[in-house]
Fold this sequence. Notes:
Blueprint: E1 2-7, E2 12-19, E3 22-30, H1 32-35, H2 43-67, E4 75-81, H3 85-102, E5 106-110, H4 111-117, H5 119-122, E6 130-135, E7 140-147, E8 150-156, H6 162-172, H7 179-187, H8 211-223, H9 228-257, E9 261-265, H10 272-284, E10 288-291, H11 294-297, H12 302-313
Parallel strand pairs: 1-4, 4-5, 6-9, 9-10
Antiparallel strand pairs: 1-2, 2-3, 6-7, 7-8
Helix pairs in contact: 2-3, 4-12, 6-7, 6-8, 7-9, 8-9, 9-10
Bound molecules: 5'-O-[(R)-(carboxyoxy)(hydroxy)phosphoryl]adenosine.
Amino acid sequence: MRVLGIETSCDETGVAIYDDDGLVLNNLFSQASFHNIYGGVYPEVSSRLHLDNIIPLIKSTIEESCLIGKKRIDAIAYTAGPGLIGSLLVGASVGRSLAFSLGIPVIPINHIEGHILSPILDNKNLRFPFLSLLVSGGNTKLIYVKNFHEYKVLGRSIDDSVGETFDKVSKFLGFGYPGGPIISKLAKNGDKNRFYFPRPMKKNGLNFSFSGLKTSVFNTIRRNKMKKQTISDIAASFENAVADVLVYKTKIAMNLTKANRLVLVGGVSANSYLRYVMSCEMRKIDKKVFFVKKEFCTDNAAMIALSGYLYLKKSIKFKHEMVVDANWSISEI
Length: 333
Ligand code: KG4
């Protein structure tokens, strides 16, 4: 069984193939450099770039896979939401047309489910249940993953996502997009205790809020002369505050669900400081923590192809009537 996956929910055009032996190919055209000048993703530019790149990427992926003797495709899986509507429509139109012309099933995949399942790409034997901390550009969520297709959202951000907050802080400091890797690099030379930024821990139960933290960083930048060391100290202090909040709420969720395994997914889970702090804290309470290979942290088609493969393999009914839904909640799958 072999599934071709298409990802176009935001600013990464992805095409991948997953089969019974695992991941065959994972190709990506990253639009990040095109959005850099806007300091964030420009939706219109994103859909146009998907349109330019999706067919050449599918073509090269199929050609490459033929080279290694993998010819037949049994189904097409594509990201149907949540995401930017114009971008989703590109992947949906191409994926559905391709499936129609080949006479094979088409599987609309929820992007969040793709992230939740992404650790299986690295670790086929990852056992359910586990707690998933999804930290990306569009989402900050704590999800209890009882089994494949059985998800319970325990907490989410009530305002900005963590990734968005990293991107905004980078912009405030005069740097580009995506901000996460830039802040992470700056923070390596900074003093994480020089500035104290708010940590909204006690409020909102298991929900997160990052807008106060973002405003506080903004005000600190305005009040201080931006010397090289100050910039690094702000980056490190900000990263430290983010990690504290994520660790605090995650620990409560681990206790609540009695989960023994934690999996960090999404673009921000590539952050090395967060990985370090989370590993230390989980070790203290005797829980296992899993991370995803960096190429699978940010948006990619491998996780979409894998999700489609699992739907097909387990014969779980997927939403046939679904085409795209920019606000498709993981609770509704
Ligand atoms: O998972 P992703 O591609 O987007 C969504 O599915 O929404 O994540 C992109 C986000 C961006 O906000 C980017 O700044 C952040 O992940 N990111 C990082 C790092 N690498 C990417 N944030 C913190 N540290 C990193 N090393």
